[in-house]
Amino acid sequence: MKRGFFGGTFNPPHLGHVRAAEAAARQLELESLCIIPAGTPPHKKLPDGSPTPEQRREMAELAFGSFSGLRLLDWELLRPGRSYTADTVERLLAEDPEGELWLLCGTDMFETLPHWYRGKWLLSVLHVAVYPREAGQEELIDELAERYRREYNARVRRIELTPTAVSSTLLRSLLREGKGAEYLPEPVYAYILKNRLYAVRPEPEALWKLAEGWYKPSRIPHVLGCRSEAVRLARRWGADPLDAETAAILHDITKKMPAEEQLRLCRERGTPVPDYRPELEAMLHAFSGAAAATLEFGVSPEVESAIRWHTTGRADMSLLEKIVWLADYIEPNRSTPGVDAVRAAAYKNLDEALTLALEHSLEYLEWKGFTPHPATREALAFLQRGETGR
Ligand code: ATP
Predict the structure, then answer these.
(1) Statement: the pTM of the whole predicted model exceeds 0.85
(2) Nearest to 34 by CA among 92, 121, 118
(3) DSSP code of 331?
(4) Is 83 in the pocket of ligand 1 (CB under 6 A)?
(5) What is the DSSP string of 130-156?
(6) Fold category of 202-384 in CATH
């Protein structure tokens, strides 16, 4: 059987890995591809705060899941002590001693291969498929291949690949800055967000791609309006624009869910829900949306809180809470009576705008015969006392 194997720390697995493996599997016509996440790699220490081995295995499964003939092997993750490719290769060869076993590796690994533990033995028993990690490395690969053939009788084939210029190290730092999603398979990015790995901050466009399906199409213009308004307000008033954008993108995320499902999310997150009465139906999504934003998208406590209070408001709101509340109220698609006065005030005096909008909201609720949530009255009373907030 013609098998390939591809090992790496996969911390996290990225499109560089996936495209290289795809190209090798296609060009070599592999019948099976083993993905082998490394346990403790001999050549590098995993950075502090790295995902658990189980999380790296799950990410690898998400990244390579669509490959035909895929085997995800956790041998190195489970093996105590350091991971050596030689031990893995012995085990793979024992499974199929007559077969052809291909090691997939990039130029960086290929350059050091003879110096790995039992490297010369590896070169004698394996076939090696090498692809460039950076543009223009073809000549280097061919020269090394020629040398290894001469010196070790190695069997090497160069894989044609337009490299994706990224490494897991670079990605980990991009993710902390709210960047890098374009280098990750979408399910891996979603997993990183959900589990808050690498101190990730969501990248708005990638977050929107994941969140969009949660909304009814008719709600999308409102969410996008709120998103841009929240960013404008955050810039105007010195809040974090990325937090504001994240909260706005997710603020109505559970709106189309049945109430039962929303209550389940709140229970799972431990979000207290006010006594459930018919008039609270309209605000339940704020509580459940905050829970979903945390459970599914791993948002920060500040963003969770801004989503949680975006409908009712509350006394002593944080700057981010005020911004998301107001963005929801004044975004360009809104045509509530009196909204223009709030719009004008929002860029001059945030608390005045909020006071005006809360007054309008309470009047409207009373006119409709709804009992407002007590937090809305408390929000207004707090502002009317002239207190400025958190
Ligand atoms: P780190 O930045 O943490 O060192 P890495 O991105 O180099 O990680 P590893 O998991 O250590 O990834 O590498 C596993 C294998 O993937 C190696 O053979 C390496 O050459 C290859 N590889 C890594 N990045 C790329 C890339 N962008 N394109 C092609 N191959 C890659």
Answers:
(1) yes
(2) 92
(3) S
(4) no
(5) EE-SSTT-HHHHHHHHHHHHHHH--EE
(6) Hypothetical protein af1432 (1.10.3210)
Q: Report whether residue 133 contacts ligand 1, using a CB cutoff of 6 Å.
A: yes
CB neighbours of residue 174 within 10 Å: 19
Domain-wise residue ranges, the chain: 2-172, 202-384
CATH fit for domain 2-172, picks 1.10.10.60, 3.40.50.620, 3.40.50.720, 3.10.180.10: 3.40.50.620
Structure tokens at 56: 């790296």
Decide if 319 contacts 389 (C-beta within 8 A). Answer: yes
CA distance 296 to 154: 48
- Does residue 163's CB lie within 6 angstroms of at least one atom of ligand 1? yes
Q: How far does the centroid of ligand 1 lie from the alpha carbon of residue 223, in Å?
A: 38
- 113-143 pLDDT per residue, tens: 999 999 999 999 999 999 999 999 999 999 9
For the stretch 51-61, pLDDT in tens is 988 999 999 99
User: Of ligand 1's atoms, which has the minimum distance to the CA of residue 13?
Assistant: 10
35: number of Cβ within 10 Å: 26
